[in-house]
Amino acid sequence: MRARTCSAPLLLLLLSACATMDPSPGEMGDPSPQSPRFANLQRAAQYPWTDDGKCVVREASNEWPILAGRCFHALDRDRVRLRDVTKRCAVAYADAAAPAVVALCVFAAPELVVGAVIVIGAVVVAAAIQEGIDAYQRNASRERAKPKAQTQPAQEPLADRTPKPKGSSTGDIFPPPPETTPRRPSCEPIPVRHAGEDVPHNECADKFPPNRYPGMDVFVGGERFDALQVGVRVLWEIKTHRFDTYPDFIQEREIEKEVEQLTKELAASRACGYDFVVGVSTQAHRLALIARIPTLHVVVTGCTR
């Protein structure tokens, strides 16, 4: 029987050390523009949980080391391998005999170190975590849709209403420059349920590449893809409509729309180190896309509707 718990004083010491442990160069990912709660939900979505993610959702507003410590008991340890690749946990807890202590230290590390956490088999995002992610995205959309409140400028005293000369040292003549370095979305693949109810399309996405996460799309680099291929770093976009049966006018409009979408997905996949393939049902559709984007990798799946 594997150990799942440790004493309260040791757990507090462990979480304190994990929270203050300095990452090695190159281990830190790009800063996330989302809230810490949303970042925690995204990270937790990669792992299997025995309680359907309820503990994660409850603790998601805490820092990751605290969440990891409180929810470690709910992690499906039969499907996760925790490896101390940096050897910092082994050094920090050289006197600890229980392997669970080092395993918790690895899992609670603030940064996500490549190769430290290995999940066995495909992971379907826990229902409670998926609901939390969906709720955050809905709230964020509503906030973006709200009109900006317009405030009246404060009235200056009469004595101060004389125009100030250009270059004067008094007054804010020039506004601060905007942020010039946009933050990149995460390149970690996050499985989410297929967006639509198009059964033939979803079956093609699951079976043809084949999909590493059957029944799921995947978010990578801020874009949504139909599949992540099993065993390789290849993202897929699947098109199953009968393009060659459309009138010329409709074909042109369809290609314009797809080129805009595929250009974004191609850029996101390359930026994150993935190959990108488009699967279409007909040769006519393939040739039309290649004519517009010659570097695009397009294959004929033969999937029917």
From TrEMBL:
Residues 194-203 have a biased composition (Basic and acidic residues). It holds the Pfam family DUF6310. Residues 140-203 are annotated as: Disordered. Residues 181-303 form the DUF6310 domain. Keywords: Membrane, Signal, Transmembrane, Transmembrane helix. InterPro entries: DUF6310. Residues 1-21 form the signal peptide. The keyword Ligase does not apply. The keyword Transmembrane applies. This is DUF6310 domain-containing protein.
